[in-house]
Design goal:
The chain is α/β, with parallel strands linked by helices. The protein is built from 11 helices and 7 strands.
Length: 251
């Protein structure tokens, strides 16, 4: 496991090996299938990508996006011959859309697991659960939520790097199961549509607020009217519907 930090901020005294954006790009040209992840600040409209992670089981690059613009990696992310593996891609895609980046071919481990576990109770869909299920890795998520004030400490860099370490391994195991169950076509469909959902959520849609609120008020009045009519019907037939009558009404 080799974590490399890509940044030029002298205020980040990382003990990890320092790499350049060019090294990441060259690595991606060789490794056409790679895990992709982001750590972000704020939302996709007013916030920004704090770090961009690229890698696999052997190599992980954590890119400080306050030092290097993510647009440096636009061509890599949009390469038609490459596959970007993400966990819950819709979240990251919206941040990429804000920068004008549209990753071409993606694989979403979250979506794949949703398909494989549809209908099952107590299913676990988080990356830490998938890593434990399909690989020997145990990801420490205790740092989540502290990045905003910790900054790019070694522990934060390690946490960010680990989010791409198991993605390809998880994908390969999931693909075996999806193929066995003849669900690859469904995966392709869900993967295509998640890009559309990401754009819908990022761009929003036109809404006539005045008409929407007027309709909502009208529906609320109707709902109260129907509720009262239903209550009166049940109260008028206590023998038939006694189990639906709140005994506190007798007070």
């Amino acid at each position: 496991m080799a974590i490399k930090f890509v940044g030029n901020n002298q205020l980040v005294p990382s003990t990890f090996e320092i790499a350049s954006p060019e090294e990441v790009i060259n690595w991606c040209k060789v490794n056409k299938i790679r895990g992709i992840d982001t750590e972000t600040i704020g939302d996709c409209w007013d916030g920004y990508i704090y770090t961009l992670q690229v890698g696999n089981e052997l190599d992980q690059y954590v890119i400080d996006c306050t030092s290097y613009n993510p647009l440096l990696f636009k061509d890599i992310l949009e390469d038609k011959e490459s596959t970007s593996i993400l966990q819950n891609s819709k979240y990251d895609l919206k941040f990429f859309l804000h920068l004008g980046i549209k990753p071409n071919k993606i694989y979403d481990t979250f979506i794949a697991e949703c398909i494989l576990t549809t209908g099952k109770k107590d299913r676990k869909l988080g990356l830490d659960a998938l890593a434990e299920k399909y690989t020997n890795y145990r990801l420490d998520k205790s740092i989540r939520g502290t990045i905003n004030y910790l900054g790019l400490t070694d522990s934060v860099i390690k946490y960010a790097a680990e989010d791409v370490i198991a993605l390809e391994l998880i994908m390969n195991k999931q693909l075996l199961l999806l193929t066995e169950l003849d669900l690859i076509n469904l995966l392709d469909l869900e993967t295509d549509v998640v890009k559309v959902f990401a754009e819908m959520e990022y761009n929003g849609m036109y809404l006539n607020q005045e008409k929407w609120l007027a309709q909502a008020k009208e529906r609320e009045l109707q709902a109260h009217k129907f509720e009262e009519a239903l209550n009166q019907y049940i109260l008028a037939n206590p023998d038939k519907y006694s189990k639906f009558i709140d005994k506190q009404l007798d007070l």
